[in-house]
Protein 1
Amino acid sequence: MLKNKTIILGVTGSIAAYKAAEITSWAKKQHADVNVIMTKNAQYFINPITFETLSGNKCLTDTFDRNFQYNVEHVELAKRADLFVVAPASADFIAKAANGIADDMLTTTFLASTCEKLIFPAMNTRMYENPITQDNIAKLKRFGIKVIEPGAGYLACGDTGKGKLLLIEDIEEHILLHAAYDHDLSGKKILVSAGPTCEDIDPVRFITNHSTGRMGYAVARNAARRGADVTLVSGPVSLKEPVGVNTVHVTSAQEMFDEITAVSDEQDIIVMTAAVADMKPVNKAAEKIHKVTMPDAIKLTTNPDILSYLGANRREGQKIIGFSMETENLVENSRLKLRKKHCDMIVANCLKVAGAGFGTETNVVTLISADRMQELPIMSKDEVAEKIFDFIQKDC
Ligand code: C5P
């Protein structure tokens, strides 16, 4: 996903420096051209040879190294770079970068580069929270440099608090958000619904379905990686909130309806992947129902059909995408749904096909618009998400 991208990875003197090896290895596997630059202090924590072995490129440490092919290495690399990442970034590096100091290979290259820059701080909580560091961070942000808030927890120095290097998988997602795709959805507001809804019977029990939310989360992630401003309205799932996505948590279909319709007018594209419960109990018992008082039946009523509402109340130019999960007559039933719910596109999947549907890592879908149909082979839910937006951009 990072093919033909040149990434500079700055590594500074923090105990978390060793974690940069994992980022290097991952970026290389994503086919990026990774160029690591280390400060002098970083080399006390991890050897440059590690980065050279993992990246296949010389690890730059010394501005005045004469044993190398380029005369003005920092300027040459700065011109080529698509993304400049500093992870871990020490308080010292942040202070230097904020004040335009260029006294080593990393700070010199940083100052010479005009590409997008992402800084991942890692330091002791007191250093991080010190107003001087905070002021430096605010200054960097004013210049358009992205400083991502660190994690919190037990730190190597024994303190507990903010200042932990962000989880590597989150750093990787930030890199993908900035460098993996042409931002063809930039400027677009996209709303995605995901997961099941839960309809309470009493304070303990509820009606729900097997949706895990994986498809919807993949759709939200793909939209964010392509530059969109994404809101994800999610039913109860056990997935991590996608990085770079505004996630709103709901439980019932009515809550999902309320959250979605509150912001639906602002959206350019709405993708309803959620498995919204069609029915809910007419009354939720105030207290737990016990065996002795158990009713013979639970009276149900219908939930609002969010997709139908959105289709009938759409803003001009807005695109509405629905999902259809069938066990038979997939295309026929999906075409009917497309018309009935006034959608621009239906993503149809058949529950009976191996590798499709709930809880799987993969899906097998057919994309259907009023005059186009594309049958896709089995692929990961991330790949399906990508195909959905390709189809929306080209064919509906
Ligand atoms: O009618 P059916 O449930 O098969 O339609 C599925 C599509 O409709 C999905 O996109 C789903 O998110 C949406 N839906 C909805 N509100 C409901 C039921 C389904 O928005 N109450």
Protein 2
Amino acid sequence: MKVQSLPGFRDFDPERMALRNHILSTWREVALAWGFEEYDGPPLEPLELYIEKSGPEIVEQLFNFTDKGGREVALRPEMTPTIVRMLGGRIKGMPLPVRWFSMPQLFRYEKQQRGRLREHFQLNMDIVGETSVDADADLVCAAFEVLRRLGLTSDDVVARISDRRILRQLLLESGVPENALHVAYNVIDKVERDPRATCIQRLVAIGVDEKSADRILRFAEMSLDDIRREFPESGELRSIAEELDRYFEAITNLGFGEWVRFDMKIVRGLAYYTGIVFEIFDRKGELRAICGGGRYDGLFASLTDSDVPALGFGFGDVVLGELLRDRSLVPKVSSGPDTVVIPVDESVRPAALKLVAALRRQGRRVVFPYGKSGVGKTLKKAASQGIAQAWILGPDELARNEVKVRELSSGEETSRDLSGVLGETSGG
Ligand code: HAM
């Protein structure tokens, strides 16, 4: 019987693993450069952690079951509730803001499509205990820096920025009842995918008249200046717009002004966001979102005994990997061996093994033939595996305290002093 892997789950052969490591090591480098500390949590959590606060979209996608102890559990679909649970109990007394990052594998029972699988890795960077928009600006710039270090530019990607507070205010003013706000958010979230008539219909269904429904869809296209012009009397909207000005200015000063644009069509699918939100997309608009996040100032208070402001993002490896492949930005790195040590006959095998051990301690990636094997055959096999160097040890060389080193690409050979090589690491 041939057992296939489950739909939406990936096998990582060495080539795919190299790309995954390339992405994850860049994530870690940038998060550390931004002064974040790494954490992790359990991959399996109590179901209730997600039920109330993540919103219906994620709840429908949960991999959940009853465990053998009768507990309702779920594989983590996102990291935010976990960090809130972990920090909620201990944030009092910690120096603020807390900056934590993690790179969990997450699980969502999604309809499989380009850029969306049932498992993915996600860089999470979160800042807890800070209200200033400088934090929002610093955070999104970390995502840009990841993209920059991987070889992408602002010609390839753009962050679309919005603010839940502005949207909320505009929707309430247009007659959306408070308890139906989530439906209106969802309409705006899907405004680029759904036909206009469907959007209007859904707004009318929650009690908005047709004229206001039309106005709501127009809001989605507005710039910050349009909002200031259209609502000159609203002090609240003006002060949020000023905050956003400061946010964009900080991003420009941090060197990423070209990477952002204001766009009210960005809502974010998750229910807990309360302020500035963003999603990063490829400029051509061919792929799903690469990264998304924002402020979730109320989530600590609703899940824990602490009430602290927070913000963060999730940056997935799937769409990013596709973008890097599309732009030929996947480096050709091999994790395979670079050196083979070949004993010419069995009499020198003990010395050859000592040489293997010494070369490995010097940082080389070394293999040797496990059984009897001819020199010519071993060299041929090594070349076909992309190995760069062969260290060939025969009885004559051993008697002279030497070893032959052959470059497999050119065939060039030199002799090295054997006890010198063995001695380089023997002190350690
Ligand atoms: P999210 O928008 O659900 O946010 O996911 C963030 C990113 O994870 C997406 O932009 C995408 O790159 C990737 N992603 C999500 N689902 C999938 C999937 N099924 N397959 C492949 N990639 C996927 C969150 O998860 C929030 N918890 C982020 C956050 C952290 N907000 C504050 N802190």
